[in-house]
Structures are given as C-alpha cells and as structure tokens.
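QUALITY CONTROL LOG
STEP: pairwise intake check
CHECKER ROLE: data steward
CRITERIA: each record must contain a sequence immediately followed by its structure tokens, with no blank fields

ENTRY 1 OF 2
RESULT FIELD BELOW
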Amino acid sequence: MDLKLHIRTVPDFPKPGILFYDISTLLAHPAAWRACVDQLAAAIRPHAPDMLVGIESRGFLVTAPLALEIGCGFAMVRKAGKLPGATRPHTYDLEYGSDTIEVQNDIIPQGSRVVVMDDLLATGGTLAAAISLTREIGAEVVAAACIIELNFLEGRKRIDVPFSSILSYDS
C-alpha cells in the first residue's frame, strides 16, 4: 500500500510558505493506518523498548497505539504546564527564541530502554530536545522514529540515535 496516497498536503499552514503534511487522512483510513502501525512496529521491535515516548500532540496519535501493539509502556512529552504532578523541564532553542517541554518525573523508570517518537521529522529540534530530556531522567534512548521525514530539512543530522521513518519527502 502506498501510504503517501493517504497523506494530505496543506499549503500555507500554519503560516504562509509552509507546506503542512497532514496525517489526519491517514488516520481516517483503517487499512492505511493499520499498514502504518505495522511498518513502524517492525522498525521499532528490534530495539526492544520498555517504553515509547511520544511528543505532543500528533506524536501521541502515533505512539500510544504503537506501544499497545508492541506491548510496552507509553509516556508523553508535552509543552510546559500541561502535565499534572512533578515534572522535569527541558528548554531548547528554536529558530527564533526557545521552547520548553516536560515529562512527568515518575513515569519512565530509570534505565528503561526508550524509543522517542513523533509524527514527522522536520528540522529535528523538538525530537532532539525530547531525546535529551528522556536521557536527563535516566532512561536509555535506543532509537527514534516518525511516520514522515522531510529529508530536505536535514533533521536527521540532529538525531544521535538510530532513526527510522516509513515515508520521506525530498521537497
């Protein structure tokens, strides 16, 4: 199945000049979504993760069902102030300014083997920050994965663990 047929592109979203790769149409098609989950599971299983960490918010849509599929835990990385209880923050630089993400202090056991996931890899800044944050709490990040990789933005260069994507775009 050609999963690219199930990815909608939306010009000028969220701002002019951006071509947004929308996974909503993939999620709406059960056979395509099943094929996507199966392909991601095949890429991630060899890393034998104890936990998958998903990045807010579309990363949750990818990571939660995948964790269930491969039989491991799921943890959320969210923007600051969105998680209850004690959290560990991590601030990172953006093209213009900075942002902060957090994870709950007690959700990922020390020494856990973790795969960090999102729906799409663009410049790699958020995924690299989530990897750093996961390490800061004492987990071993064994890999990272996304559905879509935008090759032309070279985000993979910022990821220092094995990385998998099932779809890639060169422009």
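ENTRY 2 OF 2
RESULT FIELD BELOW
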Amino acid sequence: MILAAGRGERMRPLTDHTPKALLQIGGKCLILMIISELQRAGIRDLVINLAHLGEQIETFLGDGTALGVQIVYSRETTGEITTLETAGGIAWALPLLGDMPFIAVNADVYSDYDFSVLLAAAQKLNAGGPLAHLVLVDNPPQHPHGDFGLAAGKVQPEAATRHTFSGMGAYHPALFAGVKRGDRARLADLLIAAMQSGQVTGELYRGQWHDVGTPERLAALDQAARKA
C-alpha cells in the first residue's frame, strides 16, 4: 500500500494544486520512484489511498498496466475530504488489502531501500504476533530526537537511543482490528500499544533515505539528483 492521501500542509503552496505524490525529484514523480522500487522487489499488486487531489494521481497512474503493476485505489473522499490519519486510512483499505500481511510506504519517501527485505519480514508476521515490522533510520536534522528505540530486533517506544521511523513498514491486518472503518486513527498509537507487548520487530537502515516534507528539502533533493 502506498499512502498518498495526505494534504501535505508542510509542502504548501506546492500542494495547493499538486498532490505531494506527484511532486518531482530529478524529473521523476515521487510515487513513480516508489512504484519502481516495489516492482524491483517483485511486488506487483498495489493499493493507493487517495484524498486531497487524488483524482490527479489516479489519472496519472491509471490501473498501473503501463508500469507493469496492478493498482487499485482506496478513495477516502465522500463529498468533503475526510482525514482518516494513517491507521484510519489503512483500516479503510483493508477490504482491498485482504487478510495477509502487507507492506505500506509513505508517498513522500525518497530512498534506495530494498523492499525485498521488508517483504521477507512481512511473511513472518501473524495474528498472534509479531504484528508489525518497521524500517528505522538515523535521525535526520529536522527530527533529531527520533521516534523509537531498537534492541535485539524489537522496536521499543522508549529508549536512550532513538531512531526515526522511515514511513516504511510491514503490518498484519490484526494490528488494525480495533479501528472501526471510517474512524480516524493514528498509526503511532497502534504501534506503541503493540510495542508494549513485544509485538513489533524492526531494522535499522543506513542507506539513502529522505522525508520529502518541505519545499526546501524537495528543492535540495531535486538539485542533487539533477547533478548526479
């Protein structure tokens, strides 16, 4: 699942007329780069959630045939845009995702991470636990205090050394069992509850990773990509 329903408030004014997933680095849309990396890992069946300007994403990607993948869309709009948050958006999409573990990645992630590693981790998840596997990264300048700790392969809500959640993870549908479809829910809340019972595994990735969260970071990455 590619999480592309966000409003992209920090990216305004760029996202006033263009969804964040369609912003470009080095002449290529963020979401196309993610799809390419997923495809490289052998992942062909994709669910993309949509809200703010989602029709632009759907028009641009179509059903994915031209990209060698199959895309279905989880539309979170009913008249007015509904903000379901990350966990709420995933819970809304569960009928499309099925009852097996799945990978989810934020549409504003710019990385060379090998999704085949996350795919292997997803296959180890089950309803009895672990319920999730997170890819953590070293803390970027804009997020110096991190999110979670990591010890002996388990992610912890509190630790002396904390890392940043990359926006890439694998989840079992059972993690979202307590979220009523259509309700707003934060992914962090579900993950922390699962961590407290030892139900979340993780890894630390030290390759290229960027959260493309502001126009300034987008411009810097675009300039670097064009020079490469």
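INTAKE CHECK: passed for both entries
DESCRIPTIVE NOTE, ENTRY 2: The helical segments are 30-40, 54-61, 85-97, 115-122, 187-195, 215-227.
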